[in-house]
Amino acid sequence: MIYWRNAATFRFGGIIRALLLLLICTTATAEDYIHLGMWSYHFDDSGYRQKHNLIGIEKNNKFAYTYINSQNDRSFYVGKIRRDWKCAGKWCLGYNYGIITGYDIGRYKWTPIAFPVLSYDGFIKFDITCAYDIVCAIQFRHEI
To answer: First CA to last CA across the chain, in angstroms?
Structure first.
């Protein structure tokens, strides 16, 4: 069951669900993915949540994810990803950026954010992102 913190988060959640449905129902290309699962490692070991129950969709390098964040709050992350900046075999370096919710960063509920991405495109596909010197996370994706 999903618990919503306030009406603004609920409205944003409805927008994300509608966007996910729209992306799923449109024609998929070879670069479209469904994202399932995310695990993180926090360098300060402060008892943060490490399993995040992520689900999301990526289409034409644009994405929408929802998950339970490290502080046990519902987060939404929408934005754009690039995985082809520097490649060596099945490994590629890239970045993603967008708007994220669910964290108390400053006084705003929606925060612009950017991360470096290390991607692996073998039999199993995954992305590794690191946020500053605080946390690294891995999330898995599957072509649709």
So the answer is: 26
Q: How far apart are CA 91 and CA 88, in angstroms?
A: 5
pTM: 0.76
Selected from 3.90.1640.30, 2.40.160.20, 3.30.1360.70, 3.20.20.30, the CATH number assigned to the domain covering 7-143 reads 2.40.160.20
Sign of the torsion angle spanned by Cα atoms 43, 49, 53, 59: negative
Q: How far apart are CA 59 and CA 26, in angstroms?
A: 9
- pLDDT for the residue numbered 20: 55
Q: For the range 115-120, what are the long-range contacts, defined as Cβ-Cβ under 8 Å and sequence gap of 24 or more?
A: 117/81, 117/82, 117/83, 117/93, 118/91, 118/92, 118/93, 118/94, 119/83, 119/91, 119/92, 119/93, 119/94, 120/90, 120/91
Domain spans, the chain: 7-143
Per-residue pLDDT tens digits for 56-97: 999 999 999 999 998 889 999 999 999 988 899 999 999 999
